[in-house]
Structure formats: structure tokens, C-alpha cells
Amino acid sequence: MTSKGEIGGEGQSGDLTFTTTSVMPAVDGFRVAGVKTASADLAWTTNIPTASVIVYTNLSTGRSLSVGDPTYVVVHAFTVPGLDAGTAYDVLVKAQNEAGAEASSPTLSFKTTVDRVPPVVADVSADSTLYPGAQSKVQTIVSWLTDKPSSSQVFYQEGVAADAKALSTPADANLILKHIVVLTTFKPGAVYKYWVVSRDASGNVSKSETFTVLTPIQKQTVLDLIGKNFQSVFGWTKQVKL
Q1: How far apart (Å, rounded) are the C-alpha atoms in residues 180 and 183?
Q2: In this model, does residue 242 exceed pLDDT 50?
């Protein structure tokens, strides 16, 4: 910087430096765009590119958690996952610019929905295999699909009588889409009725229609047939007394 008066020479100062202050972030239009059973969709904008931290509180338990979005943008959309069904929450967002300056949104409240739709059970099938031996054993694999994660259980009864006692496999609480249950209690050469039951995370239960399966029976070997034919042809000799 230099200066010169009307009289005298020119004066010059030393070099000076300065830093401009950053623009403070501001959150605008913060809203809950959609609510599901286990998640909530949020949307908002900021006046400058910012990263975000979403803070949400379960009003039933008082527990607060936070999730972050490190991307510096001005138009924001974020889905908060892992929420409890049918539960009220408070939520706010904190926006931070690259210099670390921070601004917070107002706190909003919402309640997640309750799932009342039972799972759809499809493609139920049973496949039995006979394992021969001194006592033949039958292994039956029952499989089916559901349209959302659900538990697995098979009910069954021997015969087709309506008043027969039904038994079941232990309920598998693992929530899956593709279900496979193995049964080893079926008898060879018998007819069984069976149906499947699946329960989703919200407790909604679906029962399939009733199916029947005929378990296999051990086939006669060639030696068995020869022995029976031999007995048929020469069996009369047992009646002859020498």
C-alpha cells in the first residue's frame, strides 16, 4: 500500500494479509418426505454446499442416534434406516460447511407405520427321498417362498382324515424369503397332509393351503424277485413229507 501527500515523497507500508469469513450455512425446507414401517425419508436444502448429520430420538425409549451424510451438496435427501415400527421419533439435521461452521434445522416429529399385511406364501413343494437299510428312513424337504422376510414352520399329519392329530416342526425364527425345512419323521409308503406357516417381523401370519405327499417305499431288488419266484414255483415241496 502506498500513499503520497502534497508535500514530500511517497510512503509505502509493509504487506498485510487478511482472510474473508466463510458464508454461514442455513437449513431450509426441512421436512419428513415419507414414513415407512422401519424407515423415514427426509429432505431439505442449504444455502451453500454442506455435509449433514441427522440426529433422531426414539420417544418411547429416549435413545438418540445419529447418521451422517458427508457429501457437500445444497439439495439433500436421506433415508433414516432401522427404525421401530409404530414408534414416535424426533429428528433434526445439522448442516456443516467445509470450514466447520454449523447450523441446525428445527426439530420435527413423526411416527413410523405398523405393518398389518401378512406375508404371501408361494411355490410350496415337498420332495421325499428314501434311504434304504435295515430300517428304511424317509427324508422330506419342504420348501416355499414369501414376499418378505418371515419365519418358517411346517405342520403335518399322517393320512387324510380331517380329525387326525397335526404335528409340527419347531418354528425357525430366522426371517428369510426362501424357506427350506427338512423332516425325517415320515414313514415309508405313507400319505401325509402338510401345510406351511410363516410369520413376519410385525407378527402377521400366513398359512398356506393344505397339500399331500406320498412317501416312497423300498423297491424289491432282483434277488428279492428271484427268491419270490423260486418260492412260488417250488413252494409245493414244503407240503411233501419225506
Answers
A1: 10
A2: no
